[in-house]
Amino acid sequence: MSERDADAGRHERTTSHPTPGPRNSLWHWPDAKSVRRIVYNYLLVVVARLAPSLRVKNRALARLGATVGEGVSWGLEATPDVFWPELVTLEDHCIVGYDATLLCHEFLQEEYRTGEVVVGERAMVGAGTIVLPGVRIGAGARVAANSLVTEDVPPGKTVAGVPAREVSRTLDAEDGGPGAGA
Fold first, then answer.
1. Which residues pair with 66 in a beta bridge?
2. What are the helix (H) ranges across 51-127?
3. CATH code for the domain of 159
4. Interval 68-95: pLDDT, tens
């Protein structure tokens, strides 16, 4: 990762694709990707979502074009981006939980944006989480279940909520949560 990328937020790492005419940008996806490719991607996404074997899931993700590190754990019904799966990077031993979604695109009214999503080494993405394009989840970071990740998650930090925000270890300890002693 370049120094510019490390300091940039997700919007600086996304590419804008303006779309002409009165229709919203979702109408223009066939200009960027062939229908045949999206059907192929969708079939592989179904395999990645439903296969019981992590090896099969990781092969399907790699076949989609995602970068898949060693020992990646892809949860049941987790969904990679169907349009731009080649922008997904899953570093070694990361976990993407049940029904999580990694989006590398967002369709807006007059444009669509694409951006890489990186899940760092040994990072964990909780069940039901949605990660938006251009987001990097740092090494060893943790994202709580059902979070919406709109910004980068620094290495080793824990975030939760909609939108996801850093969780204080002090508050966890005071509330008897995961940061509390035995």
1. none
2. 54-64
3. 2.160.10.10
4. 999 999 999 999 999 999 999 999 999 9
Q: How far apart are the first and last CA of the chain?
A: 39
Residue type, 118: V
- Report which of 43, 16, 17 is spatially closest to residue 30, judged by C-alpha positions: 17
The pLDDT value recorded for residue 3 is 44
Q: Which one is predicted more confidently, 8 or 83?
A: 83
Q: Domain span at residue 56?
A: 3-174
Rounded to the nearest 5 percent, the helix, strand and coil shares of the chain are: 30, 25, 45
With a pLDDT cut of 90, the percent of the chain lying above it is 85
Beta carbons of 18 and 114 less than 8 angstroms apart: no
Number of folded domains in the chain? 1
pTM: 0.88
> Does residue 78 belong to any structural domain of this protein?
yes
Task: Please tell me whether residue 29 adopts helix, strand or coil conformation.
Answer: helix
Report the amino acid identity of residue 78: A
Distance of alpha carbon 38 from alpha carbon 22, whole angstroms: 24
